[in-house]
Design brief:
- The protein is an alpha+beta fold.
- Helices cover about 40% and strands about 30% of the residues.
- It contains 7 helices and 6 strands, in the order H-H-H-E-E-H-H-E-E-H-E-E-H.
- Strands 1-2-4-5-6-3 form a 6-stranded antiparallel sheet.
- The protein is globular.
Length: about 170
């Protein structure tokens, strides 16, 4: 449903606007309490704010760890889906979050892909059919103190390779 709405919206809005407002209006993302505050025109950079509020404050008065994780979880995958286009399959494969300090105020997280990283992904997928990229970022407060360290592994494959692998698995089961 979201992908269909996105394709329709592209007639009227830039990809960056669709990304930002699509996430911020999406009921699934709103429940995380995160808010996208910046998106570069090429989608290579996204900034998320997780404001502390009654919706995400835990028993000891800091932001609930699940809110920190859910507000950051979909970013890299959706960024790559939009940057790479329809010829690729992109899935979150693994994620870890290491909490360093309680988040007792609004926190932020930047998600960035360099042009070199995108080129590497395309080359690896062209050569091997698939590629796993590991991305690391930090959730920080206004003073740039690290609140949590986030590591994501994202699987990227070309569609024909992915279909072929799924068919092979279906025949062996």
């Amino acid at each position: 449903m979201y992908r269909t709405l996105s394709h329709i919206a592209k007639r009227f809005f830039s990809e960056a606007q669709i990304y930002k407002y699509g996430f911020n209006l999406s009921p699934m993302y709103k429940r995380s309490t995160g808010k996208i505050v910046e998106v570069s025109q090429d989608l290579h950079h996204v900034k998320v704010k997780i404001p502390i509020s009654y919706k995400n404050r835990n028993y000891v008065g800091s932001i609930f760890g699940g809110s920190l994780f859910s507000a950051t979880d979909p970013m890299y995958m959706i960024q790559l889906l939009n940057i790479l286009g329809d010829n690729y399959v992109v899935w979150d494969k693994e994620a870890t979050i290491k909490y360093k300090k309680p988040a007792k105020e609004d926190v932020f997280c930047d998600f960035t892909f360099s042009a070199d990283e995108i080129e590497t992904i395309k080359i690896e997928v062209k050569q091997h059919g698939k590629f796993n990229i590991v991305k690391e970022t930090n959730i920080i407060n206004k003073r740039t103190q690290v609140i949590a360290e986030l590591t994501k592994t994202i699987y990227v494959a070309n569609k024909s390779y992915y279909r072929e692998r799924r068919q092979q698995k279906a025949h062996t089961n």
